[in-house]
Amino acid sequence: MTEVPKLAQRGPYKVQLEAGKTYFWCACGESKTQPFCDMSHKGSAFAPKRFTAEETRTAWLCGCKRTKSAPFCDGTHKTL
């Protein structure tokens, strides 16, 4: 059976990204520092999504943890 990530929230997180900075998006839904990883996934089948911001901007990171375009929201939360 495949593990399903915890639904952290039913919608995206609005975050400010800084150009050139590396981030780790929580994929398990258990992190206390959503939408970013705090290592709560240890011992599970999940691993954070590492990404580097290409530009300084506001972004919408997935909160339902079911996006097909991780770490960014693709609207999947609307179907849950």
TrEMBL record:
One of its GO terms (cellular component) is cytoplasm. Keywords: 2Fe-2S, Iron, Iron-sulfur, Metal-binding. It comes from the Bacteria. Pfam families: zf-CDGSH. Residues 10-47, 48-79 form the Iron-binding zinc finger CDGSH type domain. GO terms for molecular function: 2 iron, 2 sulfur cluster binding; metal ion binding. The keyword Iron applies. This is CDGSH iron-sulfur domain-containing protein. It comes from Tabrizicola oligotrophica.
